[in-house]
Specification:
193 residues, mainly alpha, two-stranded antiparallel sheet, elongated
Amino acid sequence: DARQRFHGVEIVRLVDGEWVLVGDVQDATKVGRLSRGLAIGFVGLPPTAVRVGQALSLTRTELALDELTVVLEVSFDELLQALRDLERHGVLFRSGEHYRFRHDGWREALAETLSSEQRRELHLRIGRLLASAEATAAREAETGWHLFHGGETRQAAVFLRAAGRRVWEAQSFAECIPVLTAGGRGSTAREDS
């Protein structure tokens, strides 16, 4: 059923092509973001499944299952169960060895459930994990951004400058500006203890 139910009470409804909270159905212009309606669907998910989804929502590159167990401090069996729960609820789908979000709205909705402190901590954990692995050109920018958003600006600057230079050399000038700018800010920032 497309409508989510919580204790038998309808809480979201599709109105004019947008999901809205039932209490706001009369004024669908106030709310109606797909991600807000989808976030209501997380109510029935086990906490570990939500945590796995939140971690996946913050990364654009693929994380191996063993990497996710480290980031989230869960067992391999707990992780597999969480992935099955997310798949069963329609949040993720499995394609071979990979899990992907069924829709970017799920990614956005999971990211919105994080407090700023939780988001910072997850970015930091992912960034540190990626930084400890063998550096690859494909992961330099992602590593840098996670460290940057996690608060480790000096270490982030190293990865972001390297990624920015690589993009510059590939003549992707518009793409290198945000990476090099953040990398430059990190190199002059004072490290918070």
